[in-house]
Design goal:
9 strands, single chain, 43% helix, Glutaredoxin, alpha/beta, 17% strand, 219 residues, 5-stranded mixed β-sheet, 9 helices
């Protein structure tokens, strides 16, 4: 496990930034910079889950429409929860692929990982199929669980306009337009948060190796 050499996710995402620069107008990035600055300065996510907090319970549908209970998952060991916006986001797709690469190691360390998105079940089913993901992808209707974790937010009007090509109503089944920021939580088998990663800039994500290091420390 420790001898596997993987390309750091930060390097992979840097290539996605270059790709996005080629595909999208500068006005889009101006809105992004303004939004990220507002998130950082406003303290909007100061109430997000922190190390030592109890993990709220969830009961969410997986890609097959079956409900998954976080309490049942915790009986098996630590739980890794990664929030993502949807597979329409190139940075989310790359991150999910990187998480898939470490899934076998996560399991060897006695843990389970899940990914959570506001997308509807039919969308998550397509995500699992398209990316061949080995872990559960759960549908967080109206971002209810994300809001309880303190990491979901209503999409600002200018950002919603920038995302005009994305049909959120059909993807989310709601016109509320809530999205999660990139966030990862690791809870130990007692449901206590042992790692909390919160990042307002969706172009930045937690390195998967940090997940493995944290799980190793919990053994």
């Amino acid at each position: 496990m420790g001898n596997i050499q993987r390309v750091p996710l930060s390097q992979r995402l840097a290539l996605k930034v270059e790709e996005a620069r080629r595909d999208l107008p500068e006005s889009y990035f101006n809105i992004l910079r303004k939004t990220v600055a507002f998130f950082r300065d406003s303290g909007m996510f100061d109430g997000a889950l922190k190390i030592g907090d109890p993990l709220p319970r969830f009961w969410l549908q997986n890609a097959k429409g079956h409900h998954v209970d976080s309490h049942e998952l915790l009986t098996q060991g630590p739980l890794v929860i990664s929030f993502f916006r949807g597979d329409w986001c190139r940075f989310c797709r790359e991150t999910l692929l990187a998480l898939a690469e470490i899934d076998e190691d996560v399991r060897r360390l006695g843990a389970t990982q899940v990914a959570i998105t506001p997308d509807l079940v039919q969308m998550t089913a397509q995500t699992v199929l398209n990316l061949n993901l080995p872990f559960e992808v759960l549908s967080d209707s109206k971002s209810a669980f994300g809001l309880r974790c303190g990491i979901s937010y209503p999409l600002p009007n200018d950002m919603a306009e920038a995302y005009h090509a994305i049909d959120f109503i059909n993807r989310h089944g709601s016109s509320d337009f809530f999205l999660p920021i990139p966030a990862v939580f690791i809870a130990d088998q007692f449901g206590i948060v042992r790692l909390s990663y919160i990042e307002p800039d969706y172009q930045k994500r937690l390195e998967p190796q940090t997940i493995l290091d944290t799980l190793e420390s919990l053994r």
